[in-house]
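Hey, resending since the last one bounced:
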Amino acid sequence: MLAFFGAELRRRRTAAGMSQDQLGQAITYSAALVGRIEVGERMPSPDLAKRCDDALDTGGLFAHLRQSMDSDMHAYPLWFREFVEREREAASIREFSALAIPGLLQTADYARALFRAGRPADSDEEIESRVTARLERHRIFDRAKPPMFWVVVDEGVLRRPVGGVAVFRAQLAHLAEVAQHPGVMLQIMPFSAGAHAGLLGEFTLLGLGGGRDIGYTESVESARLIEQADEVAAFNLAFDMIRAVALSPEASLDFIARVEGDVRHGSDHG
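The structure tokens again:
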């Protein structure tokens, strides 16, 4: 929906014979923001959508599209929605995960197994809605300029066969494949590293451009966005310390291959 909004805005603007700068002046937003929205890198605000409708005489098209984006967010818990909006805008994402494969790297079956285990009272339809919403987040990597994604995963995550052997083997294979994509840096934190800064908890850092970062942490049914400069600096330092003692990206791929082999042989002998 975000990509469609941007493409339609570009088409309507061009048809009206307006440059990004001219449209920006007409709606009192910057040309740079218009450009980022047109390539799907920025979520438009409801106010901007309405102003685009007025300037381009669309009959309310962009306001409707923006409202549809909000409808798409209903599959997310309330406390998670603001993070998803910020994530869609991020130029970089850094994450330390100690409990599960990060959501942006999960397969559908792995995500389904996690949701079913954590939400036993949910209907199958509710679980599928959550799985679909999680996979929708992956679309940020389809942007013209996808975010740089640097993730450190604890070894314990690779030792927990979520969903059973077949599901977990497919997840490991997917993890190894994505780790070789340009713009993705994956490191494994081995048990042999001993104590490290990540033992204080999982977190994500979003780089929003202009040198501005925000942090994010969550628990079972709540979350917190961290925007205070000194707190964000502490999370940046923690991530630097974590990645410094984790395995290199090359060694991490070898490690994943060994774990996948262990899972496969364990299944063969089981």
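The mean pLDDT is 89.

Sorry for the duplicate.
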